[in-house]
Give the backbone structure.
Amino acid sequence: MKKSLLIGCFTFVAVAASAQQREGRVVYERTMQMQIRLAGMEGAEQMLPRTRTDKIEVLFADNQSLRRVLEDETPDETQFGGNGMQIRVMAAGQDDIIYYNFGESRVTEQREFAAKKYLVLDTVSKLNWKLTGQTKTILNQVCQQATAQRISSRMMMTMDNGNMKREEVPDTMNITAWFAPAIPVPAGPEYQGNLPGLIMAIDVNNGRTVYQAVELSPKVEASNIKEPKSGKKVSQEEFRKERDKVMEEMQRNNGGGNRRIIR
């Protein structure tokens, strides 16, 4: 009798595990705070948008995922003017595709910059995540909270007496993520490959960048999840150097007089 009960329990566990969602499509709303300093240009900062919102699509299946930006009504380029100054804010990364192979711990990013395509090759970076014990429900999924910190650097755009400057500054990111253990795949809009469940929401530095899942479907065309092949193969560091060089040329060629480009 005891033996039969034990077998029955194992059968139930196997059925429950097989019923878990392991493929699907998620749409995230991403809201980013715009951090642009215009020293010596009183009133100019009020012309700039404080936030930008768009949508990200993530497809996942077969231990792989694909992330891309969805088309929306937000213009890729926004212009502001006044007091003899024209400022153009251009959205970067709208055509980027990011592919993850979790089994091989591999990342391939297809990036388009200055009319050139790049394939940025990297490995899945690891963070030291800590579970807080807090839970909340997102799109009918009970999610657990995890936190991590990432210390790196970022480029800061400043305007000083009409001169645009780009400088690298230290950047500490405090990351809060909510993941769904019932969907045991390490996919998400960012920081993929780290958590034992689909990431449903992310908050970086108390609202500087926020991702929130707004659609979740168990249906996906797995054939659409494929590694991009078009572009010049480079490392993250090589891409960063080429991007910075192009940005400096753009500022020299297009930033003369009172015309400034912020990307």
Notes: The chain is about 15% helix and 50% strand. The first helix runs from residue 2 to 18. The first strand starts at residue 24 and ends at 33. Residues 20 and 182 are 6 Å apart (CA to CA).
